[in-house]
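Hi there,

I know you've been waiting on this one. I reran it after we fixed the sequence typo, so this is the corrected version. Both the input and the resulting structure follow.
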Amino acid sequence: MKLLTIIDYGSGNIKSVYNAFNLISKKKFKVIISSKKADLKNSSHLVLPGVGSFESCINGLRNSNLVDTILKKVEIEKKPFLGICVGMQMLASKGFENGEFLGLNWIEGDVKKIEKINQNLKIPHMGWNNLQIKKENYFIKKLKKKINTPEISAYFVHSYNFHTKNSDDKIMSTSYGQEITAMVSKNNVIGVQFHPEKSHKFGIKFLETFIENEEF
């Protein structure tokens, strides 16, 4: 049986992610929340949520002493990995919230504050936005078969934007006075700025696609 582990490193919002995956598990896979290396080592899929600042999340992750175990699972064993919200931002090279901080550098790029183009643009960016597919990789092709609709939207809550160095790594975007990176992916690593656990039917289909597939 597949084991999906939601990594507990002190960030909030873990329970809602757990509930969403547990809803679709139907005894086909096991979902746990854990900060134990042994659980991560036994996992077939890893999920990294993130709520708060880039600084607090990346420091919390590094202080958890789990990074080496995660690196082995992702870079050597090539297990599917999903980062959500700040969990996606930490995949970047650097984050510029409250200073300059090194990320995991799995997907090259920088995370910078959303530009306030005009006074009507509220930050944080909060609410539902349509998603635009920039690149149809293996995951997106599988997802499109599930959702079976040309228009998709998801729920966002954030103030920072992931500027990818390589355009091929940007899989989906949304518009909020400027282009906002909504999804990144490289090899077995996926990151989403939106919250699939709060994105109703589309979010559930997204999570189903993640757990069902082991090739990206």
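Quick highlight: The mean pLDDT is 94.

Best,
R. S.
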